[in-house]
Amino acid sequence: MAIASVLTPHDVPTTLNYFAPIGDEAPYRYIYKTPPEGKPEHNLGDDPRQVVVHDARGHESEFSLDVQGFQFVRHVSTEKEFVDEDSIQGGYYKEVEALLKEVTGAKRIFIFDHTIRRHHEKDGSVPRTQSRGPVERVHIDQTYEASVKRVRQLLGDDADRLLESRVQLINIWRPITNPVFHRPLAVSDWRALDEKDLVPVRYLYPDREGATFSVRYNPKHRWWHLAQQTPDEVTLIKCYDSATDRARLTPHTAFWDQSSPSDAPHRQSIEVRALVFDTE
Predict the structure, then answer these.
(1) Dist. CA 71–CA 65, nearest whole Å
(2) Quick one: pLDDT at residue 197?
(3) How far is CA 60 from the centre of its chain?
(4) CB burial of residue 216 (10 Å; 0-12, 13-18, 19+)
(5) Cβ atoms within 10 A of the Cβ of 182, count?
(6) Which of 72, 183, 205, 188 is nearest to 135 (CA)?
(7) b/e per residue, 23-54, with b = 16+ CB within 10 A?
(8) pLDDT category, 121, cuts 50, 70, 90?
(9) Is the CB of residue 11 less than 8 Å from the CB of residue 55?
(10) Residue-wise pLDDT tens digits, 128-143
């Protein structure tokens, strides 16, 4: 099939899964850890809502990390398959570091992990140790407090000094091998977000505790995607910014596009997570 010509840029009516509480306990999720007997792995319910995800194709330059909280950038990588961990961490990480410095003007980048998603079912449908699929839930990867905690966990003696200046946490999301047709990535404009929409969720790991934000539905949210996003295009997703006079984060999620051809390849993607500092 002629992949590049199957779809034309378009806005997508779809359903997004927002946060709904289950029970009275504060939201939580166990990660790589067995919960106590009789306790569910998480208490996060779904609140499906109809939205329109607008197409940014042709208007990529109108979006920026500091205004909307996300940015589309053309960036050709020498890494194509993303199957070798040494190559990813030894080569691709360096590319990402250079890209972030160029886009943000940052002085220091600390990449702390990445996730490759190849499974065709949504994330959580199979054990995390086997495979990862797209996350079909509106979320932000870290809370404000958890982001600062990550700096302290990862940067050791440099943490206090680095936290005195601007700190960002940015995800670098890229398709692998093919343009994205199934379960593309949607990002939401920071300016349409009420911070009361954010719901902290405790993430309980075997060796530490983190926290992410789930998101309550708000009809004012405005969603965007980059139609047929290719492996030579990345989406930069801001998950934290210590500066309070600009976009501080952006909700994001995978979503269904019912117009996608059934014989198009399943989505494959990599997201790299980086702490971005304005000082050395």
Answers:
(1) 5
(2) 98
(3) 18
(4) middle
(5) 17
(6) 183
(7) eeeebbbbeeeeeeeeeeebbbeeeeeebebb
(8) low
(9) yes
(10) 445 688 999 999 999 9
Average pLDDT, the chain: 93
Tokens of 84: 């070798």
DSSP string, the chain: --GGGT-----EEEEEEEEEE-SSSPPEEESSSPPPTT--SB-EEEEEEEEEEEE-TT-GGG--TTTTSEEEEE---S--S---HHHIIIIIHHHHHHHHHHHH--SEEEEEEEEEE--SSPTTSS-TTT------S-EES--HHHHHHHHHHHHGGGHHHHHTS-EEEEEEEEE-SS---SS-EEEE-GGG--GGGEEEEEEE-SS-EEEEEEE---TT--EEE-TT--TTEEEEEEEEES-SSS-----EEE---TTS-TTSPPP-EEEEEEEEES--
Q: Going by C-beta distance under 8 Å and a sequence separation of 6 or more, which residues neighbour residue 229?
A: 175, 179, 180, 184, 185, 235
Residue 200: both structure tokens together: 């902290």
Instruction: Report the greatest alpha carbon distance in the chain.
Output: 54
Ramachandran quadrant class, 112 (left: phi over 0; alpha: psi -120 to 50; beta: rest)? alpha
Residue 139 tokens read as 């979320």
Tell me: the pLDDT tens digits for 195-240? 999 999 999 999 999 999 999 999 999 999 999 999 999 999 999 9
Q: Which two tokens stand for residue 194?
A: 């009420």
Residue 120: half-sphere exposure toward Cβ, Cα within 13 Å: 6
Cβ(140)–Cβ(212) below 8 Å: yes
279 exposure class (CB count in 10 Å sphere: 0-12, 13-18, 19+): middle
User: Would residue 21 be called left, alpha or beta, if left means φ above 0 and alpha means ψ between -120 and 50 degrees?
Assistant: beta
